[in-house]
Amino acid sequence: MFDNKRKLPTSEWVFIICNTVFLVLFAIVTLYPVLNTVAYSFNDGSDALLGGIHLLPRKFSMKSYNVVVNKEGMLVGAKITVLRTILGTVFSLAANAVLSFILSRKRFVFKSGLSLFWVITMYANGGMIPVMLLYRSLGLTASFWVYVIPGAVSAFNIMVMRTFMAGIPDSFEESAQLDGAGYATIFLKVISPLCKPVYATIALFVAVYQWNSWFDAMLYNRLNPEYTTLQYELMKLLSSVANQGGNGNAGGKTEAAAQTITGITVRSAATVLTMLPIICLYPFLQNYFVTGLTIGGVKE
Amino acid sequence: MVLILWLPLFFKEDQCTMSKRKTAELDITKVKLTKKEFKRQWGLIFVAALYVIYGIVFYYLPLGGWIMAFQNYKLKTGLFHSKFVGLAKFKFLFEDDRFIRVIRNTLAMGIINLAVTFVTAIAFAILLNEVQSRWFKKTIQTISYLPHFLSWIIVCGIIHDSLSSTGIINEILLNTHILSKPYNFFAHPNWFWPIVAFSNVWKETGWNAIIYFAAITAIDPALYEAAAIDGAGRFQRIWYVTLPSIKPTIMILLLMNIGNVINAGFEVQYILGNGLVQRVSETIDIYILQFGVGNMDYSLGTAAGIFKTAVSIVLIFIFNQIAKSQGDEHLF
To answer: Which tens digits make up the pLDDT trace of B204-231?
Structure first.
């Protein structure tokens, strides 16, 4: 039944064809809207209002990109986003790695207590308001550091890393200890080099999270345009249009405002610029996140 | 055999190693804090203490802020001098028709999203696994991850443009003469929940499938061969071999996500919602944002937040008990 393709019964062929068609359709549904956005971004603004643009621009123009790059807030947003992605990832990775190292030491005296302490944080959180008031009283609002410091340690990331570290044989640690190495040396020189795949995975998770977040910018730095982020700027562009979709019922929209609403091409250009780094990078990082996710989760 | 270690490991590891100790007396699991150990581990203990301080400040202090829900909190008087009002804020919440509606919306969208994203991810993983060509499999998989890496802002923009009057969906409907004039999907409350569900499916199917795909690849091929010898067709092999084999994975992921039902839904609803669909689009988080942050009624916002946390913990416990009684994987 399996050894010869010619012997496959008709029902098998039907399944294979249907399955292939279905998966190709799935890929099209996934890719088409993204490519459509790219096409719109390169199209002339007033021509685009007619619609009917699919995979290629009808009237080529780079004007939208010009508008986006010169738009107030976009450049600041880009700078802050890059900065928070780099700093946030480095800080978070270091913080999670050290804690995971401590939690994965079999001889650590407070191991189960400390584990529980962090597991609880996954389920019980204070909620939006108490957290916001806390950040305000700590002086974290109206500052850049609110993007980096509060979310640095996350129980979920620790879980993945700890599982990985716990899988490293004890003999590595023991032989290093016999050579007189302290915990700091063991962490930096013995464990960390072995943890490169899981570090890459977590770094990727955190970097994508940092790059894509906008809610913190809105909640904590709404009144501080110098700390705006790229996604928040994009959100402002979009929400003006989204609300228009409901015939402008969502409060405070006048004719004048409707006219200044950014055209679809400018929005598309901003979208393309925002997703460009991620789209360029993710296919190459694929192996990291796939192995990282499954290393943490599946063990044979 | 596939063991899913995610959360159970965190809880069960000590029990597992305990039972192992019976067989191997030398296995050191619980180390007592003696002078000697302290001297050995003071570095670890010191750093761990720093993490505890961090955790207390950023995760446990906000829990102390829950007191606000029982006060008439004012910024001027602060946490220590605001007037206590008992359960008045909760009473207000549950007498507010809007809040009841918001709970309904949150739970409905949360459950719909959870159900459809689970089913599509599992189905996608199974179908992809049936593909023979490695090249085709890899290409489809790579494409399927893409939307996960895009922010909700971008995804909502894409969904919005696709459904707009000049978007692809209306174009198809017009060209096939199903509609005679463009349909405004965002003006009709009936369409809002399906749009939110589809957005979630579009964004996360490929990503969620990763873990199922890994679980499926780990299934012993001998099981399939045995099933084939017994005369099982393709669908029977999927039904009687693949699905039962990945059931533990499904159960654990379901348990991990069930508590999120009450969180499911802020960004899409916030971005795509508008005045016309407000009745079905508003979720608890939007309510908190509007009344708690916008109107500065911090006590009310906190009370709504407490309700959310309580519901999520109750859901986790109920489903954990169900899983336990069914003899499935459970968290604790």
So the answer is: 999 999 889 888 988 999 999 999 888 8
Interface test with B, best of A114, A129, A300 (most B CBs within 10 A): A129
Would you give the distance in Å from CA A248 to the centre of its chain?
31
User: In A, which residues are within 8 Å of B29 by CB distance?
Assistant: 106
The verdict on a CB contact (< 8 Å) between A26 and B58 is no
Where do the domains of chain A lie, and which CATH numbers do they carry? 66-247+255-290 (1.10.3720.10)
pLDDT at residue number B243: 93
Give the distance from CA B21 to its chain's centroid: 36
- pLDDT on residue A244: 53
Say which residues have a Cβ less than 8 Å from residue B182's Cβ, sequence separation at least 6: B165, B166, B170, B174
Bridge partners of A60, per DSSP, are: A43
DSSP state of B276: G
Q: Which of these, A235, A218, A203, A229, lies nearest to A81 by C-alpha position?
A: A229
pLDDT (0 to 100) of residue B232: 84
Residue of A126, A166, A247 lying closest to B63 (CB–CB)? A126
User: Nearest C-alpha of chain B: how many angstroms from A151?
Assistant: 8
Cα separation of A274 and B39, whole Å?
Answer: 51
Q: Which backbone phi and psi does A145 adopt, to 5 degrees?
A: -70, -15
A23, A32, A99 member nearest B127 (Cβ) = A23
Contact list, B154 vs chain A (CB under 8 Å)? 234, 271, 274-275
Q: Please say whether the beta carbons of B262 and B308 come within 8 A.
A: yes
Residue A130's nearest CA partner among B314, B59, B259, B76 is B59
Output the pTM of the full model.
0.85
Which residues of chain A register pLDDT less than 50?
1, 245-261, 298-300
Cα–Cα dist A233/A218, whole Å = 10
- Structure ipTM: 0.85
Alpha-carbon distance of B206 to A296, in angstroms, equals 18
What are the chain A neighbours of B6 within 8 Å (beta carbons)? 159, 163, 296-297
Residues in chain B predicted with pLDDT less than 50, given as ranges, are 1-27
Percent of chain B with pLDDT over 90: 37
Say whether B48 and A114 touch across the interface (CB within 8 A).
Answer: yes
Among 1.20.58.220, 1.10.3720.10, 2.40.37.20, 3.30.420.10, name the CATH number for the domain at B88-325: 1.10.3720.10
Q: Show me where the domains of chain B are located.
A: 2-83, 88-325
Helices (H) and strands (E) in chain B, counts: 17, 3
User: For residue B85, what are its two tokens?
Assistant: 């009002």
CB contact (8 A) between residue B6 and residue A297: yes
Distant-in-sequence, close-in-space partners of B285: CB < 8 Å, separation ≥ 6: A128, B106, B263, B265, B266, B270
Q: Are A123 and B316 in contact (CB under 8 A)?
A: yes
